[in-house]
Amino acid sequence: MTSKSAKPAATTTDQLSGLASVIVLGRDDKAKPHASWFGASEEELARKAAGLMGMATLTVSGEELEGLSRRLPQGKVFASGKAFVPFVKAELFEQLAGHLPEAERELLKPQEPPEPFDGDTFLIESWDKLSIGGVVLAWEGKDAGWWEAVITAIHPNDLVTLQWCDYPDEPRAVRKRSHIALLHPKHDQPITGKAA
Question: Using CA atoms, how far apart are residues 90 and 59, in angstroms rounded to an integer?
Answer without folding.
Answer: 20
